[in-house]
Design a protein that fits this description.
Order of helices and strands: EEHHEHEHEEHEEHEHHHEEHEEH
CATH architecture of the largest domain: 3-Layer(aba) Sandwich
Shape: globular
Helix content: 25-40%
Structural class: alpha/beta
Number of helices: 11
Length: about 350
């Protein structure tokens, strides 16, 4: 059911808070950035762009490269300082009366809408239904609907047809595909589609390529929507190094590397989920099937378990800051098998005796 409550979970809490300051030495299972990134070739490519820092950024080449990657004309692409900037632009530039955010999901879209003065309705998907999309729960008069796919933190991958079916005349449908390149074959992606009315797709290059500190993402939408968002941007919003990264990360070499990484992540995720299954008798449940580079788990005494894991050297993401979840949920980033095995041994120690 939709709700207009502004109180509740801390929408500004993000996974990086778990590994700041005293958490900087912990093994990071809280942030969904692929480890071992950016790769050396990408670092070197970005470093070469530094020779051009005296000139103002020119985003035309990067914009054309992103457009070509999705088979679109450049006027359907807007480069942004990460997907987070895109949420702010959407909240400030679009004239909407009834925005709806489908939760649990990344909280920044709702925070940006509220900051822009909007009253936001929440549609809360249920754990009992596997956090699957219930299109009937979205109000018919909603003129802006935001949904993630695959969704952070649930790791649910909604069918593209089900998401596209949310489109209506007069409605903007925002699909956050920040983690879609971590899905083998990017199945269920809507990026590149031009037949869905009001569709806005957001992509991030920070997760797969380890560029969270550089801030680069993009928006795919109808030319008139792109023009509205662009008018709301400051001048030169994306730096020259970020533009260089954008062009590189959509090239053939990068796409092949990302595709390989997606299959490796899927295998590593299966290994982690299998290991977590050993704790089913102690009340641990994995939301699923998980399809993203992270898994959501429910377990008794999760707050205490999270504290004990920190003492044992592991940072995990608390779940109670996501609308629709509570303090019994934790999100775990998928890592390589040795790291997962070490984590599972720590989890065995962290779970309270008697569970």
């Amino acid at each position: 059911m939709p709700t207009e409550e502004a109180a509740g979970p801390d929408l500004r809490h993000h996974g990086d808070a778990e590994v700041r300051d005293d958490g900087s030495a912990l093994v990071d299972l809280a942030v969904n950035v692929r480890t071992g990134t950016p790769p050396v070739w990408l670092r070197e490519h970005i470093a070469r762009s530094l020779d051009g820092l005296a000139a103002y950024p020119d985003g035309r080449a990067a914009r054309a490269a992103v457009a070509a990657r999705h088979g679109l004309p450049p006027e359907r692409v807007l480069l942004t300082a990460g997907a987070a900037e895109a949420f702010v632009l959407l909240a400030r530039a679009l004239k909407v009366r009834r925005p709806v955010v489908v939760h649990p999901q990344f909280t920044e879209p709702e925070a940006a809408l509220r900051d822009a003065g909007h009253t936001v309705d929440r549609v809360l998907l249920r754990a009992a239904d596997g956090f699957r999309l219930d299109a009937a729960a979205v109000p018919e008069d909603a003129d802006l609907v935001v949904i993630g796919n695959p969704t952070n933190p649930t790791s649910v991958l909604h069918p593209a047809g089900s998401v596209a079916a949310l489109a209506r005349p007069g409605r903007t449908l925002v699909v956050d595909e920040a983690f879609m390149d971590a899905v083998p074959g990017e199945r269920e992606a809507l990026a590149g589609r031009t037949d869905v009315p009001g569709l806005v797709v957001l992509r991030s290059l920070t997760k797969t390529w380890g560029l969270a500190g550089l801030r680069i993402g993009y928006v795919l939408a109808a030319p008139e929507t792109i023009a509205e968002l662009e008018r709301a941007q400051p001048l030169w919003p994306v730096s020259t190094p970020a533009l260089a990264a954008a062009a590189a990360c959509v090239g053939p070499r990068a796409l092949a590397e990302a595709a390989h990484a997606a299959h490796r992540i899927a295998a590593d995720r299966a290994h982690l989920v299998a290991g977590l299954g050993a704790f089913a008798s102690r009340g641990l449940r994995v939301a699923g099937p998980a399809e993203g580079p992270f898994v959501l788990v429910r377990l008794p005494h999760a707050t205490e378990v999270r504290r004990r894991l920190r003492e044992l050297g592991f940072a995990v993401r608390r779940g109670d800051t996501f609308p629709g979840l509570g303090d019994q949920w934790l999100r775990l980033a998928v890592r390589d098998r040795p790291t997962a095995d070490s984590f599972l041994r720590a989890l065995e120690r962290a779970l309270p005796r008697g569970l």
